[in-house]
Task: structure prediction
Amino acid sequence: MHTTKKLYSKTLVSLALLGLTSVAFANDPSTGNLVNSSQSQSMRVLLKEPGGLGYAERNTYQKTTSGNDGDNSTGFETVISNGQNHDKHLKEHGGQIFQTTKFENEWTVDEDGKGALGSKIETLIGTDENRLFIEANSDKSESHDPKYDVSALYSRNVAPFWDLQAGVRYSEDKNNSNSDRVDGVIGVLGLAPYFFETQAYLYGGENNFWGASFEVERDFLLTQKLITQPYLEVDAVFSDDSNYAAKSGLSELKTGIKTRYEITKRIRPFIDVAYQYEKGQKATTMQEATESEKGWKYGAGIELVF
Result:
């Protein structure tokens, strides 16, 4: 009986002390601040978490701090990036200026054994969004003077893999005097679905000239270095009142397969087998009408990329 009373009294004393401790702990303001601080810290982290309740805009970033400044800081500070940081980021990710040039030289022979030398150079310089595109072509058949054209185009990226281009083209045929012409150009350059490299242009200039060109090609890897490339080139004339005009309609079509071997990514010899159709020239005061020509052509050449 005596032992029971002793245990009972100790239990009452323990309960009383526990109650007093709880009351004191609840009334302590520093304890409340600790709880609120923990909740505030968790909420701040959640708000600053990428994809969370308060995802930061792209023009802000988080700077790490000590987190022990006495102001319930989470250790992160949101800082608004200035224009200098934005320009630096743009330069590192698509804003830098780059340049690439491709030079192609090819000797072709037709079914009658007549040869021709064709040269082509393409240069692209600028950023991912704004670029200058320069293209020059030269063709010289045996026993004839060369004919060439040069285009300078402003190229603007308007969609993934596609550029809208506009500029001017100068062309001249040395076989005919006063045959030089300047045309305005507008078109697109890009990568069509299934990796078809595509160029399509509309031309308009003096003497009521309107025409168009279309080129498409596709690479197929036979090995890592041996690549075959089917291609199609089309030129059309809608109207032309000049003294050395081609016949209206489909003026030239060339389709073939070019197979190249990449010694390196910059040095690429190739062979070419193609079928070509040319409609001929129409009769004017300065020239007689010519018949259309068509047939197979066989060529070999080299591409240089730098």
